[in-house]
Write a structure and sequence with these properties.
The protein is mostly helical. It has helices spanning 2-15, 21-33, 43-56, 67-74, 77-102.
Length: 123
């Protein structure tokens, strides 16, 4: 998971740089996120990444442009900003999950995690 956190962090560096939001989004996604296999992501992040991927591959390309360029070209600046916000949100969640694992904290997607009986409130 650390490699995915690193890739999203690199994408955030591009998104925080100079230039128009659409140009930064294209570069960030194509250079760092486009080839991520969503099956390698934690269960909690698969749908968020699939939604981002769908947004970035929504439009059929013309004249040799990439699907990402075509999709972002058709977005409004607000839509591009929303996609960038999704990148930030996914990065934040991946970072949190990585930190929880490193600290040995239980994860919500693990069926082996059970609440001890003394912590369950009786009705």
């Amino acid at each position: 998971m650390t490699k995915h956190v690193d890739r999203f962090q690199k994408a955030l560096t591009v998104l925080a740089g100079n230039g128009h939001i659409k140009q930064r989004l294209i570069k960030a996604y194509e250079d760092h996120l486009d080839d991520i296999d969503e099956d390698e992501l934690p269960i909690a992040m698969k749908q968020a990444y699939a939604d981002l991927r769908q947004s970035m591959h929504e439009v059929r390309p013309l004249n040799g442009e990439s699907p990402v360029c075509a999709s972002v070209r058709k977005m409004s600046p607000e839509d591009a900003s929303d996609c960038a916000s999704h990148v930030v949100a996914i990065f934040g969640e991946l970072s949190r999950l990585r930190d929880d694992r490193q600290a040995g904290l239980p994860r919500g997607d693990d069926d082996s995690v059970r609440v001890p009986p003394f912590l369950i409130k009786s009705i």
